[in-house]
Amino acid sequence: MDVVLALAAALCFSLGTVLQQQVAAKASEQEARRAGFLLRLARRPRWLAGIAADALGFVAQAIALAVGRLVVVQPLLATSVVFSLPLGARLGGRRVVRRDMVAALAVTAGLAVFLVVADPTGGREDATTAAWVVSFGVTAVICAALTLAARGRRPARRAGLVGAAAGMLFGLSAALTKATVERVDEGVLEVVADWHLYALIVVGYVSMSLSQSSLQAGSLAPAVATQMSLDPVASLLLGIFAFDETVHDDAAGLIAALAAFAVMIAGIVVLAAAEQETSEPAPRPAPT
């Protein structure tokens, strides 16, 4: 059940990303830095359609996290970059070439092997207070450093740095979502009175702002690659160290699981790079 829901969420997220990037890329870097950037984007119907797709994806993700584990659900969401192939071809006139298909196969195969070999077990409904403090502190420091380092950089590097910060916050948002939905059975009042919900709203808003700033840079490859890669990586670490989820007990199994995970990440990077190449305008011929 959690696998099907996570894949449905990945499909929705991929559609949302394609639609949002088409609008955000038209804004300037100065506009992306302003506090009301999301409100200005909200005036565009295509961007709102992308947000609607993201909302559906979030619902599917939340249910998947309620019945599954972080180390399973979040890596499955990385398949959104695979779904972007047919969506990009349909909405952006993108041609799918052999390299794209091989990379997509690498993502799918790497993910499948990871889920089988890793054999995720254990886990708790919520992290301890100390674990949350460390998670928030480490994530805040790294994301702030990445965002500051992105200022004044070339579009591709800026997209990658900001995208990396967004990806890390996506992982933190997933952890907060899991902790929030676990309280639904206790009643709506329990959810509303709990701090996880409000932390999720704040982290979700910041991660969305950073994601749009990354897409605004116009270099889709580093933006998508870093967001889609750092999200499962951050979620894997949070699942293991904050939620006590485990991936295989013996060293050989752990090495095999990590190798499969690396193959999946490599496939994501190749797919994102291919997307960037086909979206760049052709160079003008030199004057004679």
Give me the count of strands: 2
- Count of discrete alpha- or pi-helical segments spanning 4 or more residues: 13
Task: Report strand order across the widest sheet.
Answer: 1-2
Unreliable spans: 278-288
Range of helix content: over 70%
Rg (C-alpha, Å)? 19 Å
Strand content: under 5%
Helices and strands, in order, run as HHHHHHHEHHHHHEH
**Computed structural class:** mainly alpha
The major β-sheet equals: 2 strands, antiparallel
Task: Describe the global form.
Answer: globular
- What is the total domain count? 1
Mean pLDDT, to the nearest integer, reads 80
N-to-C span: 62 Å
Features:
about 0% strand
What does this structure look like?
With 288 residues, the protein is mostly helical. Helices cover 78% and strands 2% of the residues. It is built from 13 helices and two strands. It starts with a helix and ends in a 9-residue tail after the last helix.
Secondary-structure topology with pairs:
Elements: H1 2-24, H2 29-33, H3 37-41, H4 45-67, H5 70-77, H6 80-92, H7 98-118, E1 120-122, H8 129-150, H9 155-181, H10 188-192, H11 195-216, H12 220-241, E2 245-247, H13 251-279
Antiparallel strand pairs: 1-2
Helix pairs in contact: 1-4, 1-5, 1-6, 1-11, 4-9, 5-12, 6-13, 7-13, 8-9, 9-11, 9-12, 12-13
Summarize, please:
The chain contains 13 helices and two strands; from the N terminus they run H-H-H-H-H-H-H-E-H-H-H-H-H-E-H.
